[in-house]
Write a structure and sequence with these properties.
The protein folds into 2 domains: about 60 residues, DNA polymerase, domain 1; about 270 residues, TIM Barrel, CATH 3.20.20.70. Helices cover about 35% and strands about 20% of the residues. It is α/β, with parallel strands linked by helices and about 375 residues long. A 10-stranded mixed β-sheet has the order 3-4-5-6-9-10-11-12-13-14, covered by helices on one side. It has 14 helices and 14 strands. It binds S-adenosyl-L-homocysteine (SAH) and iron/sulfur cluster (SF4). S-adenosyl-L-homocysteine binds next to strand 10 and strand 12.
C-alpha cells in the first residue's frame, strides 16, 4: 500500500529516542507522568549502563507491558557497528556510526589484571599532526555524549569481564569537544559506575581547555601528547605548537597537577631521526624532572603520512629511555597490541572510508 502524506519521509527512519546518553533523571522525565517514573528509570538505567544490555526484553524486573511501551518509544543504542575486528592478542576494534555512515572507532584492550578501552571523541580530527592517520583524514564533527558512552557499552558487550578503565585516545581531540566529553565522563561515573581515576583524557595540548579542565577539579588522569621538548621539533610534528609552545603547555600541565593532586603523563611518540636522539631525551628530562609525572614512550606506529617517518630501533629507544631514567624521571613504554587489526590511532576507519578520501582537509589550528 502506498504511504500517505509525509509518511514516506519516515520510511526506514527510526524516530525512537536512544536511552544511551540520558541520565537516570532524564529517563524519569521522559517516563512522566507515570507515578513510578523515578523508580523505573533507576531500574532501566541500571540495565542500560550497569549491565550493558541491548534490548528491553532482557530487563527482567520490568513488567512486560512497560517493556513493550519502552520498545515503541525508545531504542537502547544510538550506534550501529559497521565492522568488528578481532586481534590474535585479544584486542577487539569496532568501527561504528549513528546511521549516517560517518564512521569512527573504539578499541577493547584486555590485560591480565584489568580491561581497558579506547574511545573516540570526534569523527576525524582537525589538529593535523603530521604522524597521525586521523589527523590527515581531516575532520567531520564532534561526537555527542551518547555517541561516546555508546562506544563503551558496545565494547562492554564483547566481554564478560568488566571494563574498568577508559582512555580518550581514539579519534579526535577530546579537549576540542570538552562539553560532550565531560558529559560522557559524568555518565561513565554516575551511571556506569567507573572511577574517575580510571579515566584518562589525552590531549594535543590546548592550554585554555587544560585550564578549564583543571578548574573542574575532577580527579581524572590527564595525558599530554608532548612528543618533543624542543619547539622546532614539536612544531614539525604538531601544528598546535605554533599556538601553544612547549613551555606554555607544560606550565599548564604543572598547574593541572597542582590543582588536582594527580600525576600527569607526558606521551612521547618516538620517530627515527626526528625526535629520538639522546639530546632530545636530555631536553625532555630537563623539562619534566622533579615533578609528579610519568613519561610514556610510544614507538611510531607506521602509517604512511608521506613524511618518510619510521620507527626507531630498539637500541635507540633504550638509549632515550636511559637518559630520562638517569635524570630520575619515571618512564613507561606502551605495550603495543592489535597490530594485525590496525589498532593504531585512525587506521581502521582510514581503511574503511578510503585513505584520507572522505573528509575535509586538515586545517591545523584555527
Ligand atoms: N588527540 C589526542 C588523543 C587521540 S591520539 C592526542 O593527540 O593526544 C592518541 C595518541 O595516539 C596520541 O598520543 C597520539 O600522538 C598517538 N598517535 C597518533 N598517531 C600515532 C602513530 N602513527 N603511532 C603511534 N601513536 C600515534
Ligand atoms: Fe588529532 Fe591526536 Fe591525531 Fe593529533 S594525534 S591529529 S590531535 S587525533
Amino acid at each position: 500500500m502506498p504511504l500517505q502524506g509525509r509518511e514516506w519521509y519516515l520510511e526506514g527512519v527510526d524516530s525512537r529516542v536512544p536511552l544511551v546518553g540520558l541520565t537516570a533523571q532524564e529517563i524519569a522525565e521522559r517516563l512522566a507522568p507515570r507515578e513510578d517514573a523515578r523508580w523505573r528509570a533507576k531500574q532501566i538505567a541500571k540495565w542500560v549502563y550497569g549491565k550493558a544490555v541491548a534490548d528491553f526484553d532482557a530487563m527482567r524486573d520490568l513488567p512486560a507491558t512497560l517493556r513493550a511501551e519502552l520498545a515503541e518509544a525508545f531504542t537502547v543504542d544510538p550506534l550501529t557497528v559497521a565492522r568488528h575486528a578481532k586481534s590474535s592478542d585479544g584486542v577487539e576494534k569496532l568501527l561504528v556510526h549513528r546511521g549516517d555512515g560517518q564512521v569512527y572507532e573504539c578499541v577493547l584492550l584486555p590485560y591480565e589484571d584489568r580491561v581497558s578501552c579506547c574511545l573516540s571523541s570526534q569523527v576525524g580530527c582537525p589538529m593535523g599532526c603530521t604522524f597521525c592517520a586521523t589527523g590527515l583524514g581531516g575532520f567531520d564533527r564532534n561526537l555527542s555524549a551518547a555517541e561516546i558512552v555508546g562506544q563503551y557499552l558496545l565494547l562492554q558487550r564483547l566481554t564478560t569481564r568488566r571494563i574498568g578503565h577508559v582512555v580518550f585516545m581514539g579519534m579526535g581531540e577530546p579537549l576540542l569537544n570538552l562539553d560532550n566529553v565531560l558529559k560522557a565522563i559524568g555518565l561513565l561515573h554516575d551511571e556506569v559506575g567507573l572511577s574517575l581515576r580510571h579515566i584518562t583524557v589525552s590531549t594535543v595540548g590546548l592550554v585554555p581547555q587544560i585550564r578549564r579542565l583543571s578548574q573542574t577539579g575532577l580527579p581524572i588522569h590527564l595525558a599530554l601528547s608532548l612528543h618533543a621538548a624542543r619547539d622546532e621539533v614539536r612544531e614539525r610534528l604538531m601544528p598546535v605548537n605554533k599556538k601553544w609552545p612547549v613551555a606554555e603547555v607544560v606550565a599548564a600541565m604543572r598547574a593541572h597537577q597542582k590543582a588536582t593532586g594527580r600525576k600527569v603523563t607526558f606521551e612521547v611518540l618516538l620517530i627515527a631521526d626526528v625526535n629520538d636522539s639522546t639530546e632530545d631525551a636530555a631536553a625532555m628530562s630537563r623539562l619534566v624532572r622533579g615533578f609528579p609525572c610519568i613519561v610514556n614512550l610510544i614507538p611510531f606506529n607506521y602509517v604512511d603520512t608521506e613524511q618518510g617517518f619510521s620507527r626507531p630501533s630498539a637500541n635507540r629507544i633504550r638509549a632515550f629511555r636511559g637518559v630520562l631514567e638517569s635524570a630520575g624521571v619515571t618512564v613507561t613504554q606502551r605495550v603495543e597490541r592489535g597490530h594485525d587489526i590496525a589498532a593504531a590511532c585512525g587506521q581502521l576507519a582510514g581503511e574503511h572510508v578510503g585513505r584520507f578520501a572522505k573528509r575535509g582537509v586538515p586545517v591545523g589550528v584555527r
